[in-house]
# Entry
Amino acid sequence: MWTTLDGMRAAAQSRKIADLFAQDAERATGFAITAEGLRFDYSKTSMDAAGRTALIAQAEAAGLAQKRAAMFAGEKINETEGRAVLHTALRNLGETPVLVEGQDVLPEIRETRARMARFATSVRDGSYPGDGRRITDVVNIGIGGSDLGPLMAVLALAPYHDGPKCHFISNVDGADATDTLEGLDPHTTLVIVASKTFTTQETMMNARTALAWAGGAAALDRFVAISTAEARCAEFGIPAERVFGFEDWVGGRYSVWGPIGLSLMLAIGPTAFEGFLEGGQAMDLHFQSADFAENLPVMLALVGIWNQQVCGHGTRAVLPYEQRLTRLPAYLQQLEMESNGKGVAMDGRPLDRVAGPVVWGEPGTNGQHAFYQLIHQGQQVVPCEFLVGAEGHEPALGEHHRALVANCLAQSEALLKGRSEAEARAQLAAKGLSGDALDQLAKHRVFSGNRPSTTLVYPRLTPFVLGQLVALYEHRVFVEGVIYGINSFDQWGVELGKELAGGLLEAVASGQAPEAASESTKALLTYIRSFQS
Ligand SMILES: O=P(O)(O)OC[C@H]1O[C@H](O)[C@H](O)[C@@H](O)[C@@H]1O
# Structure
């Protein structure tokens, strides 16, 4: 199936992106998609028209259209867990039934969302908890998908906050709970225990610590649970009326659209939260209906496949020029690497190629002053994905926004064009250098250029646009997963470490390492124990 694309490798790797622009005067528009108010420009990559045709053929051969339909229809495409994959139903504001085993799931989703909205409103208007003291702060305790989604979104939508201030505790490191709870008043703080399974070690430990901080069982009326496991929430002491449930066909890293998004709803209110859902749904409709060549998630995925499989780049940087998207790279790390960081195909056969790149990043312009050195001159090519809003939320600081946009565009331009040795020499000569000094320095000031990047421009980071972006990346992961033939919706790779941590917990306390532990681990344990009295 990969024969055509594999056959393009040598040509693609020796190609100059600048030549593609020289050969095609329309490239800037022909290799960009403007849809749903967004513009995705992938012209600054080495993909040519034949490459795009081959990628689309590959997507078709992988059965993308059928698999997409199966996902939206609630079929059990998460085969290793025997589950449907229906996070899209959480943002489906329509009336057409979505069936799982013959049952329409939308009424219950609507009912839970209405309960969330009633609860959020009561917190926001001060009528909850009803003791005359208003909730000023919310602490979400969760990890992974029960943390990163709401955390990322709460930070992203700061201009829309008009509710209590949201805080997040995730790490089992007691420093996280300590530093987060410091200065908060338990009487005016609502604690959300967010865990799909309600068994996660970190979350349950942090929840117990927070309960003790709040004053014990008497404080449970300011605790809320979000989980698929209602019985476990009751065991913890949180009554059903303050448990917001969801179903196992919502994966943790895809769960921000439902009850896991409660902290976001508390921060921005139910109406703005619905705007976020509307954005997600708009992207779902686009993903389901647009031709592959004009389809944002499909082409975002195909550019990723091109960079990794044809050009051989095993990493990609996500670089939002938007300070409020500071946790987007971390969010995408989980979304992409937990979904597609797999070694076997759906049927268990080993993959014949590496699926899923290493994803990382930081907002611009900060990253420019830190790791862009490697991106521009290091020997490892890092495909860069720039994001930028056409407008910001600070009209009084227009100068800042113009500088932000200029920097974003400058980086992709620099990656594309580079600077030749002749240009470097001319610049240095103009500064008065000559002879050995000029020869020496010129080599260090050369930029190879020809480094791929994409740029995604959105109008302004509203709740709707954030919804579009998150759904865009979710579907991108799905498309890449389909092409690799893997299950993007399980995460067995996180199990082993958890199991071993269980065994080592006792060892850390007692100093008695399990017999089966490696000599290295035993020695580390002994060293750590030597500090404990
Ligand atoms: O929501 P929870 O059940 O507490 O799970 C929290 C997280 O932990 C797991 O280890 C998985 O790797 C994540 O996919 C999940 O989001």
